[in-house]
Amino acid sequence: MPRRFDIAQLNISGVAVLTLLAGLVAAATLDPPSENRVPEITDEDRRITAYHEAGHALLAAHLPAGGDILNVTIVSRWGVLGSMTRAAADGDMGDDALRARKEAELVIALGGLIAEAIARGDGEMTDAMTSDIKAAERIAFELLGGPAAGLTVAEADAGVRRSMDEAKRRARAILESREGQLHRLAAALLAHGTLEAVDIARILEGGTPSRESRERPAPFTAG
């Protein structure tokens, strides 16, 4: 027997949806979102995040093919504890330059997790499927030629693993050989929250952040 469609159900559902939408709009109006709404950020969370982003920044500074650094921050916004921003790739890059950029991006992407391991003192990089790992796998696959390469799943998996293992070795070698710079960058991020390109250059040369950075308000912290 065919199922009857009751118009009353549609009316009730429509009212419920409109009521829900109205409630969401009212909540957003009465309680506007905070740019720092990230729950329970501990001091240790901030410290590890500072090392993570400092690792990205240090590698980017030593691998210019990866793109110029614009800034790095541990000011938390909408669930993102920190981030590094680089200049976009030039649309007119040749094949060699584009490949060099991707190779550098692969090393930079993995550097944050290695820097975390250095900060923890255990030397062990997490094997969790983080956004950095996902980005690194995508870059490694692109370096293999992407879908156009016609690789089998096994061939692609093996190639991605080889590329990522080599990138991890390269990232670790750079970070461990410049551990003092890593510590200074992380400390500056903890003190100032955000570092611009000029600040990073000063710190890597043994100096201090610019006056503007020193005068910025301290970042939000929980507790």
Summarize the structure.
The chain is mostly helical and 223 residues long. The chain is built from eight helices and three strands.
Account of the protein in words:
The structure is a single chain. This protein is mainly alpha-helical. It has eight helices and three strands; from the N terminus they run ααββααααβαα. It has a three-stranded antiparallel sheet. α2 (43-62) crosses α6. The N and C termini lie far apart (62 Å).
- Number of domain units: 1
Main-sheet strand order equals 2-1-3
Derived from helix and strand composition plus strand pairing, the structural class reads mainly alpha
- The low-confidence parts are 1-21, 24-36, 217-223
CATH level 4 superfamily: Peptidase M41
Helix content: 55-70%
What is Rg?
Answer: 23 Å
Secondary-structure element string: HHEEHHHHEHH
Tell me the distance between the termini. Answer: 62 Å
How much strand? 5-15%
Global geometry? globular
Strand tally is 3
State the name of the first-level CATH class: Mainly Alpha
What's the main sheet like?
Answer: 3 strands, antiparallel
